[in-house]
Write a structure and sequence with these properties.
Layout (H helix, E strand, L loop, with lengths): L4 E2 L10 E2 L5 E2 L1 E4 L2 E4 L20 H10 L4 E2 L8 H4 L2 E2 L1 H4 L10 E2 L3 H9 L7 H5 L21 E4 L5 E4 L2 E5 L12 E8 L6 E6 L9 E2 L1
């Protein structure tokens, strides 16, 4: 069980959030929305069942093939935990036992779109969401305390990429252009691009997770 206080930016009137493992997250209040101000690090579902850790590329790829939940540290290095959080596959995100803390949920793409709209649009929202440190070339202004960090990602075959330059987060939305079993929409930020983007991703891949209050 991982247990750590995540010291992320937050508004003065925000309340801390505790997950089932006892990890504490600061909250960013953005217009009508409340978001966790750091990436999820829980290793148990809401009912207490353990989420399996994939410690090798083979274990990660097997979880993807078999449609089983899994989490990992970027490059399997625990040193990446405090700053970047964990990477989860879709099967952990979508499990009926619940990944998000009670009273919270994994956002749909519309939730992210509302967040971006409140930051005056898709073309300029990136720097306002990004942390003032942790990005290799162009850190953000972190205007609203969201503190988005480039935690990278993991492909379904187990390969890692993007730490320091790419941040990518799961939604729970299925693209209308593909079969429901094929892809899921993700939210994406890049080190040197001001705009935000949405990409369809394989369910066996690994991305960061933020939660929004119900």
């Amino acid at each position: 069980m991982i247990q750590i206080l995540l010291m992320s930016g937050f508004r003065a009137d925000a309340q801390d959030l505790k997950d089932v493992d006892g990890n504490v997250y600061k909250i960013a209040k953005l217009g009508p929305q409340d978001w966790t101000a750091s990436n999820l690090i829980v290793t148990h579902f809401r009912n207490g069942d353990a989420i399996p850790e994939a410690k090798t590329a083979e274990e990660w790829a097997a979880a993807a093939r078999e449609g089983k939940p899994a989490w990992c540290y970027y490059e399997n290095d625990t040193a990446n935990l405090r700053k970047y959080g964990l990477l989860y596959n879709w099967y952990a995100v979508n499990d009926q036992r619940g990944l998000a803390p009670e009273g919270w949920h994994i956002p749909v793409s519309r939730d992210w779109s509302t967040l971006v709209k409140n930051l005056i649009g898709i073309d300029v929202a990136g720097p306002k969401l990004k942390s003032t440190e942790g990005w290799k070339r162009k850190p953000g202004t972190d205007k609203i305390g969201f503190k988005a960090l480039p935690g990278g990602s993991r492909e379904a075959d187990g390969k890692f990429s993007g730490i320091g330059v790419i941040g990518q987060w799961w939604t729970t939305s299925v693209p209308v252009s593909v079969k429901p079993s094929d892809k899921i929409i993700t939210f994406w930020l890049s080190d040197n691009i001001a705009s935000v983007r949405y990409y369809d991703a394989d369910k066996g891949a690994g991305f960061s997770v933020r939660c929004e209050k119900d």
